[in-house]
Amino acid sequence: MKALPPILLLNSPGTASKIRFGLIIQKTCEKHFKFKSVFNRKPMKRSDIAIKPGADRNADPCTSRGCMWGKWTDGKVYVPYYIANHYSSREIAIITRGLESFSSISCIRFRPYQDGDHEWLSIESRNGCYSYVGRQGGGQTVSLSRQGCLYHSTVQHELLHALGFNHEQTRSDRDNHIRVYWENILDGQSPFSVLIWILC
């Protein structure tokens, strides 16, 4: 059998990594199965995006499986939420302000959870700031840790993930549209690597 030629996988700071396609699949699957046993304990994360077990491995997993919150006949998108009771009144005010900020500029309306809701955002102080991308079904965690995540812009950022928005700077087609000036990115800042998901 003829070996596949190397392909360009990722243009990272200062280097271009060339790797064989078979090795890409092997490494991706090894990573996927390595994390499989911990999925029921905590979500796998890439930066501040949580990934469910068995999720499509696509550059935009949300659009590949249709996870947008539905629009009602009045043209609005209603997203139920529940705020865990371990937040102080000041912290709840920050979260509420973030939730309400969407209604003046969009069709998004966050509303408190009600009995009978089958899908809602469960806003909790877990380990860090993260969210799943798009509607997941049931009560989906949006983690806003009391240590470092309770800022208006951070609340909005994680809510945007829950609404279905990924990081634009990690899209697989990013380099077709923008140029990243790697020399201007501080060490440790992320995420700027292009997402390339492969089905295992």
Automatic annotation (TrEMBL):
Binding site for Zn(2+): 157, 161, 167
Cofactor(s) of this protein: Zn(2+)
PROSITE patterns, sorted: ASTACIN
UniProtKB keywords: Hydrolase, Metal-binding, Metalloprotease, Protease, Zinc
Boundaries of every Peptidase M12A domain copy: 58-200
Catalytic activity, EC: 3.4.24.-
Pfam family, one: Astacin
Entry's Gene Ontology BP terms: proteolysis
Enzyme class: hydrolase
Protein name: Metalloendopeptidase
UniProt source species: Neolamprologus brichardi
